[in-house]
């Protein structure tokens, strides 16, 4: 059996690494299974993608489609055209897509048009916010997927509610957590740790990139004001997204007590998260990692596709109002944060379960 695995953006890399590791293990045990790795090039630069491939032991892709840049429509179309050529030249039994980026959508549509079965890792998650490009990608992908490898019972129920039958739903856990647990002893401090005199439990990590938080000057200034007011002398480490950096420069915003840094490697970023007092973010995946590491997390969004991180884990969804952030930060500083626990099957064996299904199908 030949599986074509698609990766396109930085969050995908953490999800495919354990799948490739599980395939190689099955091959070494004599199982009839192999893979072809395709990088669509949706997000690529050496400082980000290169370090991830190296640190996570992901082999060089069999092909890079080089489809970065452009609008959503331009990028999706470019990936579909290039991936169709890839599949025609290299037929396979299944195409595995992960997550909810444009590559996920484009490659699932292309595969189905060529009558190739599609497996969606992380299928069934929903934010119910159709303003998010990722939500459109999830909905369309899941409407044509043949088998869903899911992260939670919430995702399972979302699929059932949309008419998916139980025989297509395989509850495996979270492959991104597989990667985190596998590499938990490999995490290392970035150079700024010593340079800035950071101490365990005495700083906050922040990531912001969504338009609702960074595209309006008043909103962005309000966020930094809430941080300054609530955290006072507690430093904030801020790996700045290119979009956010561009806006900060345009708005003339230079926040106090914030340590700005460029992209960090996987090991460096998660070292900072693991040892932080807490995290402020508008990302989704980070909320899963903080939940497993037991680190308080404040999510500045009005909806989340990962409600288990709120209901079970250490995450709180507070909306986008800076006044709500100030209140949550005050709670964080006081030490009055919920304990949280780890969702079912987030145990580091999700990829193993996925490949077991393919071997036995």
Task: Give a summary of the structure in a few sentences.
This protein has 361 residues and is of the alpha/beta class.
Description:
The chain is an alpha/beta fold and 361 residues long. It folds into two domains: 2-174 and 346-360, Glycogen Phosphorylase B (Rossmann fold); 192-334, Glycogen Phosphorylase B (Rossmann fold, 3-Layer(aba) Sandwich). 46% of the residues lie in helices and 15% in strands. The protein has helices at 10-28, 46-55, 72-89, 102-113, 133-144, 153-161, 175-182, 192-195, 211-214, 217-231, 242-251, 266-274, 285-293, 308-311, 322-334, 350-360, and strands at residues 2-7, 34-39, 63-64, 94-98, 117-121, 147-150, 169-171, 204-207, 236-239, 258-261, 278-281, 297-299, 315-317. A seven-stranded parallel β-sheet has the order 3-2-1-4-5-6-7, sandwiched between helices. The protein has a six-stranded parallel β-sheet with strand order 10-9-8-11-12-13, with helices on both faces. α11 links the parallel β9 (236-239) and β10 (258-261). α4 (102-113) runs parallel beside α5 (133-144). The radius of gyration is 20 Å and the shape is globular. The chain starts with a strand and ends with a helix.
Please state the oligomeric state of the protein chains shown.
single chain
CATH class of the largest domain: Alpha Beta
H/E series, N to C?
EHEHEHEHEHEHEHHEHHEHEHEHEHEHH
- Counting DSSP H or I runs of 4 or more residues, the number of helices is 16
CATH fourth-tier homologous superfamily of the largest domain: Glycogen Phosphorylase B
Q: What's the number of structural domains?
A: 2
Low-confidence stretches: none
* DSSP summary, beta strand count: 13
Q: Please report the distance between the alpha carbons of the first and last residues.
A: 10 Å
Binned, the helix content reads: 40-55%
Which CATH architecture of the largest domain would you pick? 3-Layer(aba) Sandwich
Estimate the mean pLDDT confidence.
95
Strand arrangement within the widest β-sheet reads: 3-2-1-4-5-6-7
Radius of gyration: 20 Å
Overall, the morphology is globular
Largest sheet: 7 strands, parallel
Q: What structural category do the secondary elements indicate?
A: alpha/beta
Classify the fold: give the CATH topology of the largest domain: Rossmann fold
